[in-house]
Every structure is written in C-alpha cells, then in structure tokens.
Amino acid sequence: xxxxxxxxxxxxxxxxxxxxxxxxxxxxxxxxxxxxxxxxxxxxxxxxxxxxxxxxxxxxxxxxxxxxxxxxxxxxxxxxxxxxxxxxxxxxxxxxxxxxxxxxxxxxxxxxxxxxxxxxxxxxxxxxxxxxxxxxxxxxxxxxxxxxxxxxxxxxxxxxxxxxxxxxxxxx
Length: 172
What we know:
The relative contact order is 0.11. The chain starts with a helix and ends in a 28-residue tail after the last helix. The longest helix has 44 residues, at 101-144. By secondary structure, the chain is mainly α. It contains 4 helices and no strands.
C-alpha cells in the first residue's frame, strides 16, 4: 500500500468499517438495555409491559440485522484493498490492517465479543425466568380449572392434561 491514493482509499474504507462497527456496538448496548428492562418487567410480575418490551427487543434485533449487512458491505473494500477474501473475520482484518487501524479494529472485535457474551447470558436468564413464569401461570390456571393439587409433569416437562371439567370452556 505505498501508492498514496491506495493508502487514502484504504484509510477511508477502514474508517467506514470502524463507523459501522461503532453502530453495531451501540445497537448491542441498546439491546442489552432492552433485555435488562425486560428482566425487570419479568421479575416484577408486571406482564402488562412484556409485549411492549418484546416488541422493542425485536426492533433492535431487526436494526442489528440491517446494520450487520451494511458492515459486510463496509468490510468488502477493506478486504479487497488488503488482499483478503471477502469473508475474512474481523480479527484477521485487524491483523492485516496498517497502524493505527489494526488496534482500532482489534478493540472493536474485543468490545463486540464482550457484548455478545453478556447478551447471551441475559437472554438465557430472561428465557429461564419466562419459562418459570409460564409454568407458574399454568399451575394457577390448572388450580383455577379445578385440576387436582397433585397434578404432575410428563417426562418432557409439560403438565399432564386430560382433566374432565374446566371453569373456562375451550372452543375447539
């Protein structure tokens, strides 16, 4: 990359890639916030807001998908200028980039990795809390529908069915 115009193009392409990565980091931070809000809604038992919380999370996830596509578009010229295949991982792009971009991209990679690990933990936790809440609601409904107090779960973890009478009729 000794040609000044190629160096300039590479610097511009790396800047565009970095900007896209900042956008992804911001969206991941927003997603983390939305998941933490959802966690608080679940813990508080205020299911009224669960639908809104879920819709907000889905909107951020959709934004992330779109931004990830744009990141792939931003990475293409960088890969081309660095002589790398188009599907090169960020760690390898960082390693092949000139200074200071090598460090900037490595910092992005580290931050994105940490954010995705944190998101994985909280989304798993929220899923577990939702499952517990779901089972508690099912147990309450079973009691409301005169199910025997000793109703059991099947080997797959679902409630046994087959009650003869219900307070609420099901249309089927």
